[in-house]
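testing teh design pipeline on a random one, pls ignore if ur not involved
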């Protein structure tokens, strides 16, 4: 159910090209979300722990310039196609469309994606509405695409993100939010307790491209059907979500006393435990390193247009994409 949020807009700073960026703050009860119009980026997310203390639970930066140069996609909106596309090429209606190869021979997160674009914003007590016009052939993708992202805080103590998109040509669409969660801000996420509502996953080759197989998680390191510690092994894999589970994913930090559940209408979820963060400095002059944050990225499956057995990410001309992600605390 919708609520009446408090909201505030402030100038945040300049990009290297001189563009002024803004931060929009949404607050209701114990949740405060700070979103930038640059990249439709979640810059901060405050929730209350079991002792009543507020924590900023996502990784990020203090300035727009740092996001401009960022390679980790902290908090950004990924599109036009989140995750990987093999061979930096898609075929639609018999025609090849060539995309930027920014991870070896493949495309990751569309190259210069939606998290590097300026979005238009409109905010009122009921919603923050972010819109983006992606022209035909931007990053090689066909179709003039209009994307609308509606963000609300609900009376379920959750943040709800709804995506709508429409194109004038057949195209592919796959959006997600790339927030890295860390509930204390200090320690890494190896002791977090995670469950994922999936019996199957999509294995990948040495380039992290799906093989096309859909395999059971049982007996593998990817079995999170029951709550278990994340551990230290590198995890960067897509799950085939199942309606048999209440949530797409759930994560708890026993020390901080914070739990988050994820619901979504996307068919897949990428679980990534931040193993490639490397050394960098984030908000509050905090040093970040590998496994300092964990991502839950609802999505269509990676490289899904190359595998007929995967749910199709094709958006037909004139039809509307209608998907959501919800983070429940």
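output:
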């Amino acid at each position: 159910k919708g609520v009446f949020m408090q909201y505030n807009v402030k100038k945040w700073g300049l990009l290297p090209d001189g563009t002024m960026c803004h931060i929009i703050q949404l607050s209701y009860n114990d949740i405060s979300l700070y979103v930038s119009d640059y990249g439709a980026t979640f810059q901060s997310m405050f929730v209350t722990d079991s002792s009543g203390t507020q924590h900023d639970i996502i990784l990020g930066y203090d300035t727009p310039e740092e996001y401009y140069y960022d390679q980790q996609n902290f908090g950004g909106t990924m599109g036009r196609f989140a995750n990987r596309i093999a061979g930096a090429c898609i075929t639609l209606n018999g025609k090849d469309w060539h995309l930027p190869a920014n991870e070896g021979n493949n495309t990751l997160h569309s190259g210069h994606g939606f998290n590097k674009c300026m979005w238009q914003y409109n905010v009122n007590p009921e919603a923050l509405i972010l819109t983006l016009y992606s022209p035909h052939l931007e990053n090689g993708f066909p179709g003039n695409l209009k994307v609308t992202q509606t963000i609300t805080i609900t009376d379920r103590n959750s943040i709800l993100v709804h995506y709508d998109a429409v194109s004038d040509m057949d195209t592919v669409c796959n959006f997600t939010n790339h927030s890295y969660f860390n509930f204390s801000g200090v320690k890494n996420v190896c002791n977090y307790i995670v469950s994922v509502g999936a019996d199957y996953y999509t294995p990948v080759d040495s380039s992290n491209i799906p093989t096309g197989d859909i395999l059971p998680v049982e007996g593998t390191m990817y079995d999170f059907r029951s709550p278990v510690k994340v551990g230290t092994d590198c995890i960067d894999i897509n799950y085939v979500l199942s309606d048999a589970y209440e949530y797409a994913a759930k994560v708890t930090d026993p020390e901080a006393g914070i739990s988050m559940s994820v619901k979504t209408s996307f068919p897949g979820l990428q679980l990534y435990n931040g193993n490639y963060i490397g050394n960098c400095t984030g908000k509050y002059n905090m040093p970040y390193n590998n496994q300092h944050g964990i991502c839950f990225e609802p999505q269509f499956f990676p490289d899904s247009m190359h595998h007929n057995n995967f749910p199709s990410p094709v958006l037909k001309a004139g039809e509307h994409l209608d998907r959501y992600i919800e983070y429940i605390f």
